[in-house]
Write a structure and sequence with these properties.
Layout: H1 2-6, H2 10-16, H3 18-26, H4 31-37, H5 41-50, H6 67-70, E1 85-89, E2 92-95, E3 113-114, H7 121-125, E4 133-137, E5 143-145, H8 147-153, E6 156-164, E7 187-196, H9 197-204, E8 212-217, H10 237-240, E9 246-251, E10 254-255, E11 265-267, E12 280-286, E13 301-303, E14 318-320, E15 327-330, E16 337-339, E17 343-351, E18 357-363, E19 371-372, E20 374-375, E21 385-392, E22 397-407, E23 430-436
Parallel strand pairs: 4-12, 16-23
Antiparallel strand pairs: 1-2, 2-3, 4-5, 6-7, 7-9, 8-12, 9-10, 9-11, 13-14, 15-17, 17-21, 18-19, 18-22, 20-21, 22-23
The chain binds the ligand Nc1nc2c(c(=O)[nH]1)N[C@H]1C(S)=C(S)[C@@H](COP(=O)(O)O)O[C@H]1N2 and molybdenum atom.
Length: 438
């Protein structure tokens, strides 16, 4: 019981009961127990959260929280990341504040991290020697490919792909939903290089009975049990065959960063982030819906009918999330911005799962009137789209800017959350506060 408690993440411990957490973490408890806290995977995660390896790690007293972490439990630095808000350290989960998502292509250091387990050693070392990708299951020619095979035996493709965690926006749920309390920043739009999933499947000779893919990564289960996987998801074969579903080996022109899936991951754009398996090692083709970790029960599923906030939903009523809904962010200014003069040009990004964003509007009077924003075409399907809008404020004072995207089917972002038990798919309008000084 005690061990279990000690194995939870630092942020989680502190959030629940800071005094008890301090007590647990800084001592006044049995020596053996304190060591337990930082054992195994905890140590690796610790290196990742303080920003590098810890040369004198062996000298660290059991239970000691590095100063880098103790000083700020929510915004300490992550390896290779800059300015992200860390929601949890075990597993590592970090989101990007909206105003740091202003780039049309999200740089590596601003790209969110959503881990379910522990970071594989190969990714920590950024050394892919010995790595292979197995493609097996219901195929005529099972494949075992090295990184070099992937790069040389298939035609490379390069796309900007929008990618959002299914739980992005969960923090606004009331009653709350368990899980990472993402606000708005579990989303990014990087440029990925890789091979088409379809090309790989063609080479493997997928049999006609196949209906689903199954993806396996190299990350470990938090319990340390080697027989358990933290997550293993898949997609219907039709989605895998989409020309923009890829097996990626580069992000923004270089190796995929440690925390984002080095050396190779699937990128299934427009669908919940969890379909894009990091640290990929195996793809299995199946004639049943994949039943790996986080594919069963309520995981990545929502009720097929609207439910009231807090309503109990029978398990039969849950269906998989496929395309993510239409959404947008104001990224040009941080909430709280002070406007000099009476005019301001704001901008941001908009996306719509499998669809395109067709229109973008903003309001400064809580929805009384709407200003149509200028909206760019995506550079390729599944990329997010840049929007900008010029605002003239009538007088000084406090305003909120709200942004609303409409997709190619006419579906718009909403004011109110479409509540569901697991806290998925919150696509309510993003808003920022601004003050017009004079
Ligand atoms: N192997 C592995 N792949 C994974 C995960 C994971 O924990 N392990 N998390 C998934 C989830 S839930 C999301 S939202 C995305 C996050 O990708 P990122 O960390 O590169 O932003 O990766 C997905 N792929
Ligand atoms: Mo996710």
């Amino acid at each position: 019981m005690k061990i279990k408690k000690l194995e939870r993440g630092i942020c989680e411990l502190y959030e629940e009961d800071p005094e008890a957490a301090d007590y647990k973490v800084f001592g006044r408890i049995a020596e053996g127990d304190r060591r337990g806290f930082l054992k195994g995977a905890g140590l690796a995660a610790m290196g990742a959260v303080v920003g590098s390896t810890i040369p004198f790690q062996r000298n660290m007293p059991g239970g000691l929280i590095p100063a880098a972490l103790a000083e700020s439990h929510s915004s300490f630095e992550l390896m290779g990341k800059d300015g992200l808000t860390v929601l949890n350290d075990r597993p590592i989960n970090a989101e990007t504040p909206a105003h740091l998502l202003d780039d049309d292509v999200t740089p590596n250091n601003r790209y969110f991290v959503r881990n379910n387990g522990t970071v594989p050693e190969m990714a920590e070392k950024m050394d892919a020697s010995g790595w292979t990708l197995t493609v097996d299951g219901l195929v005529d020619n099972p494949l075992k490919l090295t990184l070099d095979d992937l790069k040389t035996k298939f035609t490379p493709v390069k796309f900007k792909l929008q990618h959002e965690c299914g739980g992005n926006g969960r923090a606004a749920f009331n009653p709350p939903a368990k899980g990472n309390q993402w606000t708005v920043g579990a989303v990014g739009n990087a440029e990925w290089t890789g091979v088409r999933f379809a090309d790989l499947l063609k080479a493997a000779g997928v049999q006609s009975s196949v209906i689903y893919t199954a993806h396996y990564g190299m990350d470990g289960h938090l319990s340390g049990d080697p027989n358990k996987l933290p997550i293993s998801r898949g997609v219907p074969i039709t989605k895998a065959m989409d020309p923009y579903s890829i097996i990626a080996y580069e992000m923004n022109g270089g190796p995929i960063p440690t925390l984002n899936g080095f050396p190779v991951r699937t990128m299934i754009p427009g669908w919940p982030g969890s379909c894009s398996q990091k640290w990929l090692r195996r793809i299995q083709l199946r004639d049943v819906v994949h039943d790996g970790a986080k594919m069963t029960g309520q995981a990545y599923r929502t009720p097929y009918y609207n439910v009231a906030a807090g309503e109990k939903v029978p398990i039969e009523a849950f269906k998989f999330i496929h395309s993510m809904p239409v959404k947008s962010l104001i990224t040009s200014h941080e909430s709280g911005h002070e406007v000099q003069g009476r005019s301001l040009t704001v901008g941001g990004q908009a996306w719509a799962g499998d669809h395109r964003v067709q229109a973008m509007h903003i309001t400064i009077d809580f929805g009384g009137t709407w200003i149509e924003a200028d909206l760019k075409d995506p550079p390729n399907p599944y990329s997010w789209q840049r929007w900008t809008a010029a605002i003239t404020f009538p007088e000084k004072g406090y305003y909120e800017i709200w942004a609303r995207a409409t997709d190619s089917h006419g579906v718009m972002q909403t004011f109110a959350i479409n509540w569901n038990p697991k806290g998925y798919l919150n696509n309510t309008m993003h808003r920022i506060a601004v003050r017009v000084a004079a």
